[in-house]
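Quick one, T. Sequence first:
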Amino acid sequence: MSSQLSPELILALIAAYFTMLITVSYFTGRNASNEGFFLAGRNSPWIVVAIGMIGTSISGVTFISIPGVVGTGGTNQAFSYMQVVMGYLLGYLVIGTVLMPLYYRMNLVSIYTYLEERFGVTAYKTGAFYFLLSRSIGSSFRLYLAAAIVHQFVTSHFGIPFIATVAITIGLIWVYTYKGGIQTIIWTDTLQTLFLLAALVLSVISISQALNLGIGDIIPTIRNSDYSQLFFFKNGFADPNNFFKQFISGALIAIAMTGLDQDLMQKNLSCRTIGDAQKNMFVFSIILIFINLLFLALGAMLYIYAAKEGVELPTKANGSINGDLVYPTLALTKMSVWTGVLFILGIIACTYASADSALTALTTSFCIDFLNFNKSQKSEKEKERIRIWTHLGFSVLTLFQIIMFRYINNESVISELFRYAGYTYGPLLGLFTFGILTKRKINDRLSIAVCIIAPVLAFFIDMWAKQMNFTISFMIIGVNGLITMLGLWIISIGKGRVNG
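Structure tokens:
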């Protein structure tokens, strides 16, 4: 670590950061009700939601991995990730014009309530369970990475054990979210997004200064490097970076992991009207293009800097470059204190913006989908007490999952667990697509079997494709969704059609 970037300085930054968030939560959550916790009274300014969604959608994994993968070769090398981002735009168009009008028309709090009306209770509970499973594992994994960095560079210096580092971190998130929920998060996430954007832009500038480049020299330098290729057409679908594969994957990922995700949709549903929510979605989409370009530019600059300075990059056990460690290693050990500070602020901002909204979304889904808050005759005070305990329960679950990741202590195993959690979005994609595009009724009792079989078959198809030297990559979510739809069609035979 840079001799100037001491653990004491990083700890002071983190303390000041959480103090700011807790202060904001005090003012935004003072008069929050259950409705305020779940949907902020459906009165959120759309531009604030649009900005806050950036921080929620960009996790610490993204902050580290996208710049790191630019120079590693293989999937998402160079600027090929922008092909996925282009697919996102198509996905966000579908979300804004198809899914969000549906959610607003039905006046939903949990988006999975749609499945109950369309198919029945079993499909509804199955969809909600898959969200709880995938989001809890995903948010824990993201928080684990940030906690590991904080522990390695800060708290271990003071003799604080890893479990205490995680417990304090989650405890602070719980403190500033348990009262106001989404009513607080739309504001704290907006602030965290602004910190993230500032860290990203200033990091690119800082690295360009280290390379003695002016602002106007950044684009030509990247264009003339080995990392500037954007489109990949030549090798067909066998290439993991093939344009059509990446583009289609991006669209499906956006629909499934944004449009069918309670976490991100909950913010949209807190807007005053469907028109505001759609403006939020489209502005968010445009901003996201430029942010991902900045991430990739940052990655290219990191590799250019390492080559110029002769820095030995971190490697994996097989000798290949460990892309996930390139940015933190250079920022915290090789570059200026300013670059290190920006890295710490950036990863904290995007990680906790993702984690806090995830805990709120998990709480909302469990309360609405499994505790039936929207049908319960309990008093608002009793609901509030249950909601607070549910929120605390998911915080504790997150703590246990992070400790489990630490206990496993195997990067490849943890990464695979995170990847397989993404399989659970396939059944959600299949359920919603089948429900929206067809009028067929299904045998609801069998829907859970379909949603279990689909990801299992998708897994074996993925394994078979690898043996045939074909990389399905992100397209697996589409394969998963298609298998689910086929299964739903089979269990719909002889069941007739819905009215309307």
